């Protein structure tokens, strides 16, 4: 359940608010086609990435066993001892139990090291890519995480600045230097809190979608579809469903690596992806029910004519009544 909520928190935090703007010209049906294609590609990527994480862990275990076996062989290799005397035989018999007891801590240490072996993105590049491609992969990861961090800092700072009615430039340092040490030092505490906040965010989004559908049924807008514009929402759709692969190694390290746990891990991640897909589709559908797709030319003309002063009127100076500009609001 924790993995499912963390998956939703990772995916749902990017792209959902800007997604309806990209379907202004495409409409609902072309958006559904492109978005569902992105969903199936992401689902296939999750399935294959779980297999890759398992292979990475197997390689780590084999490397650990090989290293332990080499150490044991090197300990056994030595100069052949001369024939033992009676005193040496007695010493060996007395220390036989101690010698066998020393193997148990080694086995325990091996088991603990095996449990501590966890795949990560850097290790995946080293194991399955050539040396030049591995360095390029690390550079791509570095720039990717930097860009993700910058986008989250800017988005979070602007949101808090809007609530506090101050400039976001003053919120960025506090937002960064408070949350970054909190994530690094209180990681185990923040994860359950993130799951709870994700549940609340999902409930609020569902309520918002329901209210929007209710208001949209009273407005009665009709949306149009244009398949020639289907590519416009595709890029934002990949952003809205992407990002989970970046945190899957971390989530994978929190489960017991047996067949049942890995199976449920894959199901939890795919379930989170499906939940985010449904919420994104409902959100875009609800917005189309209440906001026009494009600004109609006659609306523009009506707004322009209402703003022009009528000097031929004998009633005196032009009226200061604000025209109804809201009639020209659209996703465009």
TrEMBL record:
Q: Where is this region: Disordered?
A: 301-332
Bias class Low complexity marks the residues at 312-323
Recite the UniProt keywords alphabetically.
Membrane, Transmembrane, Transmembrane helix
**Chain segments annotated as transmembrane:** 28-50, 136-155, 167-186, 193-214, 234-252, 264-288
Q: Does the keyword Acyltransferase apply?
A: no
Looking up PANTHER family in the UniProt record yields: AMINO ACID TRANSPORTER TRANSMEMBRANE DOMAIN-CONTAINING PROTEIN, TRANSMEMBRANE PROTEIN 104-RELATED
Q: Output this protein's name.
A: Uncharacterized protein LOC103374206
């Amino acid at each position: 359940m924790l993995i499912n909520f963390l998956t939703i928190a990772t995916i749902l935090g990017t792209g959902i608010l800007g997604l309806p703007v990209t379907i202004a010209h495409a409409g609902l049906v072309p958006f559904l086609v492109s978005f569902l294609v992105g969903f199936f590609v992401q689902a296939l990527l999750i399935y294959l990435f779980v297999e890759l994480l398992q292979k990475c862990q197997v390689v780590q275990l084999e490397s650990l066993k090989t290293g332990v076996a080499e150490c044991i062989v090197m300990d056994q290799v030595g100069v052949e001892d001369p024939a033992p005397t009676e005193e040496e035989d007695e010493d060996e018999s007395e220390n036989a139990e101690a010698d066998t007891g020393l193997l148990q801590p080694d086995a325990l240490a091996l088991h603990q090291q095996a449990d501590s072996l966890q795949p990560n993105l850097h290790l995946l590049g080293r194991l399955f890519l050539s040396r030049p491609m591995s360095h390029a992969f690390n550079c791509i990861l570095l720039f990717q995480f930097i860009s993700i961090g910058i986008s989250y800092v800017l988005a979070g700072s602007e949101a808090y600045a809007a609530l506090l009615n101050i400039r976001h430039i003053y919120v960025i340092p506090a937002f960064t230097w408070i949350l970054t040490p909190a994530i690094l030092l209180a990681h185990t505490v923040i994860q359950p809190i993130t799951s709870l906040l994700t549940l609340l965010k999902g409930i609020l989004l569902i309520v918002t979608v329901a209210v929007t559908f209710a208001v949209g049924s009273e407005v009665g807008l009709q949306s149009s579809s244009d398949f020639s514009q289907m590519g416009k929402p595709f890029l934002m759709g990949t952003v809205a469903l992407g990002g989970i692969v970046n945190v899957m190694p971390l989530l994978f390290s929190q489960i017991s690596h047996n067949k049942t746990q890995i199976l449920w891990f894959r199901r939890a991640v795919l379930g989170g992806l499906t939940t985010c897909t449904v919420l994104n589709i409902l959100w875009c559908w609800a917005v189309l029910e209440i906001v026009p797709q494009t600004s109609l030319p006659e609306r523009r003309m009506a707004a322009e004519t209402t703003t022009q002063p009528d000097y031929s009127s004998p009633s005196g100076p032009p009226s200061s009544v604000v025209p109804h500009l809201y009639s020209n609001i659209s996703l465009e």
